[in-house]
Structure formats: C-alpha cells, structure tokens
C-alpha cells in the first residue's frame, strides 16, 4: 500500500491512503473558517466603532485568506478523490482477472468506501464554505466587494 499525499501548500498535506487521517487533516485545515468567523465578529466593529478600524482592508485580508484556504482544500480533496478513484479502477480490473480472490474483493470494497467518504467531504466542504461566506457578507458587504463575489442567499 503506497503512501499518497495531496499537497495544498508546502506546509500542509492531506494523507490520501487513510480516510481517518485525511478527515483529521481536513478538520485542522477547516479551523481557519472558525477563526475567520471569530475575526469577522471581533475585528469588524459595529457601525458606531467603524472609524477606529480600516474595515475595507480588514475585509479584503480576511477574504483573501478564505480564498487561499478554499483553493488549497479543494485541490487536496480532488487530488485524493482522483488517487483513490484510480486505485478502485485498478482493483476492479484485478477482480475481473481473479474473480475468486477474496483479498482483492476486500481491498476493492475498502477503497470504494474510502472513495465515497472522500466524495462526501466535497459536499461538507461546500457547506463549510457557504457558512463562512454568509458571515463574511453579513459583516463586510457594505465595505468590500470581492472580485468574483458569489451570490450568497
């Protein structure tokens, strides 16, 4: 079993070979969303204190941080899904070549489950992203408009 990594940046890696490690690493990378929500609530003041903070600059900085994180996580998840999908394809072929080999069947089922779980993480990623963007727009919409602002309901 080869060890595969998805490299979102020089410092952070998602292990693709073990789903629990993958999920754990992803959870750590998602902490930035909690930090950003906290930062939005603490650094972007209410209307009466707005003159004490450069709100457009702070909003832009937080938005850029969010986008970097989203791009890294998206690339990492997609990379792992691709790697595991390739493994599933190889195991399917091996199963066709040796239909009675229970070890191959066991490995195939394990990889198929891992693939489904990783694909579910893509949906979870969308929910996390939407939640953070919603808070971002609530706090920053009057002061900063991102270059490619998605519509948030």
Automatic annotation (TrEMBL):
This is Protein MIX23. InterPro entries: MIX23 (IPR019171). PANTHER family: COILED-COIL DOMAIN-CONTAINING PROTEIN 58, PROTEIN MIX23. Coiled coil: none annotated. One of its GO terms (cellular component) is mitochondrial intermembrane space. It comes from the Eukaryota. Belongs to the MIX23 family.
